[in-house]
């Protein structure tokens, strides 16, 4: 029952017991009085309906919603196999209004149902778009440790898609039941894992708007694709092929509408990450490059610098987005650009290719878009007003001296970590024996190493990361991991022959292993797949160290500590590899190293 507000004779409010604040105040780090049904802070912000408590005395809306989804999945199985199942409930209309579809974000990501792991050979994607085997679609998948055949992996990376059907058509005779609301609710807690940051309330509401006012099908089908992907091995995963086909088929239609280009860019980012995490590297690189090109074409890299646009001849063709309707739409555009940036910078390292997004002092190529903030900040009109000054290049030149507090938001720190990761790899890759005679390389190397160290000191200490709210915890784990992986990438060319570089690389690798101890079993469901590349970098350092110790003369040195570290990495890589086959490939390499192959 709701607690009544009673007057008190004390001179000030009594401190609230730890863990008793509402979820909104916890997320925004505000003082909460713990009143129910809504605290004073939420009432003042006119968010009383979003005030939720997770005190163990009752289920949150998210917990109730997930149980509801589980019941619906069970009913879908019963309808598809009536001869095998007895009906247990009346099917609920997913398009009907529901108390779960409110504007408040999910109360907690920890209450997500766990997923069974599966072997790489049983993974339903990447798949050729051929006839699906309906006999096995609802059968439980293997829970064995992922095993990857290196010979098969090469063909897996560059397998081609067949032609896809038109939007809304059936896929090989398969039609999805009306699951839009269910799939959207499955996806929303994972949106940051995919790099997508949008206003959740508006996204939900768009499903009920007229077709011309909805988000474009290319984005919605990409969202439904990821929801099916994240539902493995549940029954909803059988529709993964269908939504992949619908997404790719909707790309051409989306290009016809200027007002839908942001939806198109977001969808391309999600398609790229989907392919990359499944080992389809060529296709993943293609969609990443497409998203980068469109972002530059739409000048998303220079949001806030519109008044300083260059004088161009009037006969030159131009492509301009319509002005944003409000601060939230402007914020979503800013978030979309940085979604593209993170994808481009991090995965260009994994793909061993130059980054696509330019950033130079040329007026057309300079990134001046403000640092990203939370969507809630844009809604509350807490805006970062910039004068068109360089964002990333300013960070490298004036690191730690930014006058904008928004440059230290979790979203902004993620961008900075991506920039360091790619720049470290680019600098070390430029080294050659001739660089030894150049003082400029040594100076740049030392300066960049100092930047990584300074950036790491601005992050929340590791012992406090575990206590952060779930979304911030997942982001901070990835940010710390990218920072330490940047140090490894910087010293990679020298760690075999230089003792100092080897020691610094080992220190960074063990810091990454220490980070993995903060990851609980539920956390694996929400980690960005790019963290697998960070773990692979640490594994490479430890593999080199193991080889060095085993080949030491006259007697091999003790390798127990290094092998223990590799086993710790193997555990987390195997766990996450059950979801992302690309990481399973790296974990198989670590296993072979430990086996002495």
Describe it:
This protein is mostly helical. 48% of the residues lie in helices and 0% in strands. It has 21 helices and no strands. The N terminus is likely disordered.
Keywords:
single chain, 597 residues, mainly alpha, globular
Topology:
Blueprint: H1 23-28, H2 40-44, H3 61-80, H4 150-157, H5 180-187, H6 200-206, H7 217-230, H8 240-254, H9 261-277, H10 281-297, H11 327-351, H12 375-379, H13 392-397, H14 410-429, H15 439-457, H16 462-465, H17 470-491, H18 499-516, H19 531-550, H20 560-577, H21 581-594
Distance between the amino and carboxyl termini: 63 Å
Outline: globular
| Class from helix and strand fractions | mainly alpha
Query: What are the secondary-structure elements, in order, as H or E?
Result: HHHHHHHHHHHHHHHHHHHHH
Stretches where pLDDT is under 50 for at least 5 consecutive residues are 1-10, 85-173
Radius of gyration, whole Å: 25 Å
Multimeric state of these chains? Answer: single chain
Largest pleated sheet: none
DSSP summary, beta strand count: 0
In terms of DSSP E residues, the strand content is under 5%
Mean of all residue-level pLDDT scores: 80
- List the total number of helices: 21
The percent range for helix content is 40-55%
């Amino acid at each position: 029952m709701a607690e009544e507000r009673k007057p008190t004779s004390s001179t000030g409010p009594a401190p609230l017991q730890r863990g008793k604040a509402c979820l909104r105040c916890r997320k925004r780090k505000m003082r909460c009085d713990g009143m129910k049904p809504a605290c004073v802070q939420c009432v003042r912000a006119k968010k009383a309906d979003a005030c939720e408590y997770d005190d163990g005395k009752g289920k949150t809306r998210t917990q109730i919603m997930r149980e509801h989804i589980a019941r619906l999945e069970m009913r879908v199985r019963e309808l598809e196999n009536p001869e095998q199942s007895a009906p247990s409930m009346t099917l609920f209309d997913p398009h009907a209004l529901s108390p779960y579809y409110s504007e408040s974000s999910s109360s907690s990501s920890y209450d997500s149902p766990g997923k069974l792991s599966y072997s790489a050979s049983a993974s339903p994607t990447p798949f050729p778009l051929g006839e699906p085997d309906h006999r096995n679609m609802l059968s439980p998948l293997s829970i064995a440790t992922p095993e990857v055949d290196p010979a098969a992996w090469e063909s897996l990376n560059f397998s081609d898609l067949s032609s896809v059907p038109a939007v809304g058509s059936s896929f090989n005779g398969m039609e999805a039941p009306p699951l839009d609301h269910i799939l959207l609710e499955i996806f929303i807690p994972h949106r940051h894992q995919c790099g997508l940051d949008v206003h959740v309330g508006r996204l939900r509401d768009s499903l009920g708007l007229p077709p011309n006012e909805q988000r474009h099908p290319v984005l919605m089908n990409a969202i439904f694709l990821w929801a099916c992907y994240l539902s493995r091995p549940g029954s909803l995963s059988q529709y993964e092929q269908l939504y992949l086909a619908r997404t790719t088929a909707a790309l051409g239609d989306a290009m016809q509408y200027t007002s839908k280009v942001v939806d198109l860019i977001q969808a391309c980012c999600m398609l790229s990450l989907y392919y990359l995490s499944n080992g389809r590297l060529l296709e993943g690189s293609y969609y990443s490059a497409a998203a980068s090109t469109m972002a530059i074409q739409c000048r998303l890299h220079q949001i806030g610098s519109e008044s300083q646009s260059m004088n161009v001849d009037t006969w030159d063709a131009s492509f301009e987005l319509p002005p944003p309707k409000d601060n939230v739409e402007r914020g979503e555009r800013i978030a979309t650009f940085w979604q593209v940036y993170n994808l481009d910078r991090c995965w260009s390292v994994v793909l061993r290719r130059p980054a696509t997004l330019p950033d130079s002092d040329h007026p057309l190529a300079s990134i001046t878009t403000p640092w990203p903030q939370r969507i809630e900040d844009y809604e509350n009109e807490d805006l970062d007003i910039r004068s068109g000054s360089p964002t990333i290049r300013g960070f490298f030149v004036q690191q730690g001296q930014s006058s904008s507090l928004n440059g230290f938001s979790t979203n902004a720190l993620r961008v900075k970590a991506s920039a360091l990761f790619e720049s470290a790899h680019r600098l070390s890759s430029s080294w050659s024996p001739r660089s030894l005679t150049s003082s400029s390389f040594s100076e740049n190397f030392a300066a960049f190493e100092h930047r990584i160290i300074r950036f790491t000191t601005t992050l929340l200490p590791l012992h406090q990361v575990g206590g952060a709210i779930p979304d911030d915890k997942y982001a901070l784990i990835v940010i710390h991991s990218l920072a330490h992986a940047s140090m490894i990438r910087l010293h990679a060319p020298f760690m075999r022959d230089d003792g100092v570089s080897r020691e610094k690389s080992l220190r960074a690798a063990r810091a990454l292993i220490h980070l993995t101890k903060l990851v609980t079993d539920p956390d694996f469901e929400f980690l960005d797949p790019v963290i697998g590349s960070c773990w692979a970098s640490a594994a490479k350092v430890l593999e080199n160290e193991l080889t060095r110790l085993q080949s030491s003369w006259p007697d091999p040195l003790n390798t127990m500590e290094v092998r223990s570290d590799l086993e710790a990495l193997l555990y987390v890589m195997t766990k996450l590899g059950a979801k992302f086959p690309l990481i399973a490939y790296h974990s198989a390499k670590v296993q072979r190293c430990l086996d002495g192959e």
